[in-house]
Amino acid sequence: MKMMKVMMVLLTLITTISVVNAAYVYSTDADGNWKDLFDGDDNIYAIGSGFQAEETCRIYIMKNGNWETKDVGGIPPGSTGTYDVYIGDTIPMDKKVVGPIEIVTTNGGNLLNTLVWSPPLQTGKFDIIVDCKNVGGDYGSWDGAYDPTSRDAVDTNFCIGFTVVPESVLAVGLIALLVPGLIYVARKKSA
After folding, report:
1. 112 band by pLDDT with thresholds 50, 70 and 90
2. Domain assignments of the chain as residue spans, ordered by start
């Protein structure tokens, strides 16, 4: 019975490790902090992990789409993208905004914080796609297909990866946050 518990714990640990090691990417600021709302004068960076050691990959900024995952199978209803990409589909270059940016991962399989888009930025909703070289007989060639089962990655599969808004929208938001505080302080002083 004790051996059975040990086997179950090991199986759970192995399953957890294999899920955690999936390749991922997300948008950041210059310091590597996660960020998903930018204005047109910001620099956008990407960081990631779970890739092969010293692997050559290409990064693309794409208009927001729905990217099928190996776990879900299909595109769920209510997804926010304006187009669908299924596993094995060619990456739709007509939706590309920036790229390819060719990078090489570290010997630990990490994508270091990398500048992927500089001003001026176009406003809208976007995804970051990392396309790694094909595996198998054609290793070392670009297949141009989206395949998370072979280490390709997308920042979010069924919702917006990051948003670029006009600078005026951020200013209005900041004012909306400050006004109630200023009113509170003014009332406090007059009381």
Report:
1. very high
2. 24-190
